[in-house]
């Protein structure tokens, strides 16, 4: 007897996993692992596309975004005006925020020329 193609998908086969029982979590939805120490997770949308007024000031947004884009300081981020615009900063606000963060010791910037976009690294203290 040929298999009924309409009913093939509704019955479990020998290689199929059983669906989770009520109250059990499915394998695709699991909790995030806790971070060591006291940290707060911030959705990247809060920096790039806030639904309200920005929660963070320009310096804070710039530092958090560079931290995110550099994978916690593993590589530098070319800080172009387009990158700054992703978090709602004009080129002048970007320059002021970068200068403040460098002076306070939060970021390190390397400039090739006076008019080129700097490559920026967050200063992340391990320990």
3D architecture notes:
By secondary structure, this protein is of the alpha+beta class. The chain has a domain at 45-122: Arc Repressor Mutant, subunit A, CATH 1.10.10. 28% of the residues lie in helices and 8% in strands. The protein contains four helices and three strands. It has helices at 45-48, 58-69, 81-86, 91-103, and strands spanning 77-78, 107-110, 119-122. Helix 2 (58-69) crosses helix 4 (91-103).
Question: What's the arrangement of secondary structure elements?
Answer:
Blueprint: H1 45-48, H2 58-69, E1 77-78, H3 81-86, H4 91-103, E2 107-110, E3 119-122
Antiparallel strand pairs: 1-3, 2-3
Helix pairs in contact: 2-4
Shape: elongated
Low-pLDDT residue intervals, each spanning 5 or more residues: none
Overall pLDDT: 81
Question: How many strands, which pairing sense, and closed or not: the largest β-sheet?
Answer: 3 strands, antiparallel
CATH class of the domain at 45-122: Mainly Alpha
What strand line-up does the widest sheet have? 1-3-2
Number of discrete helical segments:
4
Query: What is the CA–CA distance across the termini?
Result: 67 Å
CATH topology of the domain at 45-122: Arc Repressor Mutant, subunit A
Class computed from helices, strands and strand pairing: alpha+beta
Total beta-strand segments = 3
Q: Which H/E pattern describes the elements?
A: HHEHHEE
Task: Give the fraction of residues assigned to helices.
Answer: 25-40%
Beta-strand residue fraction: 5-15%
CATH architecture of the domain at 45-122: Orthogonal Bundle
Tell me the Rg in angstroms.
23 Å
């Amino acid at each position: 007897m040929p298999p009924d193609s309409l009913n093939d998908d509704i019955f479990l086969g020998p290689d199929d996993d059983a669906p989770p029982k009520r109250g059990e979590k499915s394998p695709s939805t699991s909790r995030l692992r806790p971070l060591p120490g006291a940290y707060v997770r911030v959705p990247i949308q809060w920096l790039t596309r806030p639904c309200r007024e920005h929660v963070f000031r320009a310096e804070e947004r710039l530092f958090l975004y560079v931290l995110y884009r550099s994978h916690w300081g593993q590589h530098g981020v070319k800080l172009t005006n387009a990158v700054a615009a992703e978090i709602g900063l004009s080129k002048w606000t970007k320059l002021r925020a970068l200068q403040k963060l460098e002076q306070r010791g939060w970021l390190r910037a390397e400039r090739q020329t006076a008019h080129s976009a700097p490559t920026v690294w967050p200063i992340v203290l391990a320990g």
